[in-house]
């Protein structure tokens, strides 16, 4: 039993057991002595009283140790109660942790969606145009049949969703071409992006109108163009011819 | 909004006229691009291969912004301009058949525009219909 002890005290159990062992040994000795004393005289004088004293001492120790053991038992019980308490608190904390995590997740999602919404609001705001302008523009591109063909259009009708060479000639570029070719170059400020001059091709000496017989384009005689137009469309074409860039206000540099 | 402000800040008063002219000439030129025959013309004369011209086409993309786009009478030109950014398209335009094909398709699109649009609107309306609760009375809701 001695071998199991460390620097610290021996456990109560060990001590109890060792005391019991002592008691056992002492009792055996006493009984042997008593057995011997029947047949022979006591070899040693006060050995029996010594043993008895030891016995009593050991018994006292035993009782004390039992008390200690009992108290230790009570303490152990308390410890167990407290452990249960701790377990309960632990599980409570875990529960709260779970709920916090969930709440965080929900909030994160909500914040993310809110941010997305704000982004799209921003985007919409950036792209906003006054409805009046949109209607004006819609009217412009529809009234001139630029986007949708006139309902009575048949092949042979010279109208197109793009400027015809007649219109091209009648525009500013077409008129610029009547100047000497240097003039075309001179009209452009040195714009780095444009990287140089506007091609002279804009001078309307291109012959493509003659290639387009199959599409039914007419030779660029002013009279013929309008001769084939149904009445009521003449005015439109005249507008077309005058200037492709309509709205004089568009080219004004006055403020607004 | 003064469209000229962006382009005019570099130029002082006397250059306002110049800037105005440039605006108008660029407005006219970009709309010419809606004409596939003109594009074919440009391609055959090699303009579409010149680096300065290609840069110019890229520069013209500013017409896509709403404040500039609202001056365009022929919006097809914007689509052509976008296509012109691609080398493959510029190369193909040298062929007269290519230009003819584009012209035909463009005209067909132009002719069938309103029909296609009503069909598209109908399809959209049908898509949304099941989500709307039916009105209690007999009148159908008009969109």
UniProtKB/TrEMBL annotation, chain A:
Gene Ontology terms: cellular component: core mediator complex; mediator complex
GO molecular function, one term: transcription coregulator activity
Cellular compartment(s): Nucleus
Matches recorded under Pfam families: Med4
Region (Disordered): 217-256
Coiled-coil region list: 79-113
Keywords tagged on the record: Activator, Coiled coil, Nucleus, Transcription, Transcription regulation
Predominant localisation class: nucleus
InterPro entries, per the entry: Mediator_Med4
Any one Gene Ontology BP term: regulation of transcription by RNA polymerase II
Summary of the function given for this chain in its UniProt record: Component of the Mediator complex, a coactivator involved in the regulated transcription of nearly all RNA polymerase II-dependent genes. Mediator functions as a bridge to convey information from gene-specific regulatory proteins to the basal RNA polymerase II transcription machinery. Mediator is recruited to promoters by direct interactions with regulatory proteins and serves as a scaffold for the assembly of a functional preinitiation complex with RNA polymerase II and the general transcription factors.
Family per record: Belongs to the Mediator complex subunit 4 family.
Subunit structure: Component of the Mediator complex.
Record-given protein name: Mediator of RNA polymerase II transcription subunit 4
Taxonomic placement: Eukaryota, Metazoa, Chordata, Craniata, Vertebrata
TrEMBL record, chain B:
Ranges in coiled-coil conformation: none
A single GO molecular function term of this UniProt record: transcription coregulator activity
Keyword terms: Activator, Nucleus, Transcription, Transcription regulation
Primary residence: nucleus
Compartments, as annotated in UniProt: Nucleus
Single biological process term from Gene Ontology: regulation of DNA-templated transcription
Keyword Transcription regulation: yes
Subunit structure: Component of the Mediator complex.
Record-stated family: Belongs to the Mediator complex subunit 31 family.
Record-given protein name: Mediator of RNA polymerase II transcription subunit 31
Organism, scientific name: Gouania willdenowi (Blunt-snouted clingfish)
Gene label: med31
């Amino acid at each position: 039993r001695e071998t199991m002890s460390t620097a610290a005290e021996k456990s109560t159990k060990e001590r109890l057991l060792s005391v019991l062992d002592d008691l056992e040994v002492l009792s055996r000795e006493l009984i042997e002595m008593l057995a011997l004393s029947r047949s022979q005289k006591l070899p040693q004088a006060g050995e029996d009283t010594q043993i008895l004293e030891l016995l009593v001492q050991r018994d006292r120790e035993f009782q004390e140790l039992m008390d200690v053991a009992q108290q230790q038992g009570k303490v152990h019980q308390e410890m167990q109660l407290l452990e249960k308490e701790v377990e309960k608190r632990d599980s409570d904390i875990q529960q709260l942790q779970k709920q916090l995590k969930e709440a965080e997740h929900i909030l994160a999602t909500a914040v993310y969606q809110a941010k997305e919404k704000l982004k799209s609001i921003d985007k919409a705001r950036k792209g906003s145009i006054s409805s009046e302008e949109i209607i004006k523009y819609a009217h412009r591109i529809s009234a001139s049949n630029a986007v949708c063909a006139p309902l009575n259009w048949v092949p042979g009708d010279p109208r197109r969703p793009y400027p015809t060479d007649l219109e091209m000639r009648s525009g500013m570029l077409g008129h610029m071409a009547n100047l000497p070719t240097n003039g075309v170059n001179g009209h452009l400020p040195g714009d780095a992006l444009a990287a140089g001059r506007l091609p002279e091709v804009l001078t309307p000496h291109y012959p493509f109108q003659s290639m387009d017989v199959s599409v039914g384009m007419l030779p660029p005689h002013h009279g013929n163009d309008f001769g084939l137009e149904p009445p009521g469309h003449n005015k439109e074409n005249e507008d077309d011819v005058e200037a492709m860039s309509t709205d004089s206000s568009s080219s004004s540099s006055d403020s607004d | 909004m003064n469209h000229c402000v962006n382009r005019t800040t570099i130029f002082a008063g006397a250059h306002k006229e110049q800037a105005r002219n440039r605006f108008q000439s660029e407005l006219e030129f970009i709309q010419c691009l809606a004409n596939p025959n003109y594009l074919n013309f440009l391609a055959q004369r090699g303009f579409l291969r010149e680096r300065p011209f290609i840069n110019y086409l890229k520069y013209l993309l500013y017409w896509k912004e709403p404040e500039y786009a609202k001056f365009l009478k022929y919006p097809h030109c914007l689509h052509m301009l976008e296509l012109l950014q691609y080398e493959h398209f510029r190369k193909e335009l040298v062929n007269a058949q290519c230009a003819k094909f584009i012209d035909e398709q463009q005209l067909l699109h132009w002719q069938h525009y309103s029909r296609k649009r009503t069909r598209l609107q109908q399809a959209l309306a049908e898509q949304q219909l099941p989500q709307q609760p039916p009105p209690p009375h007999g009148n159908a809701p008009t969109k």
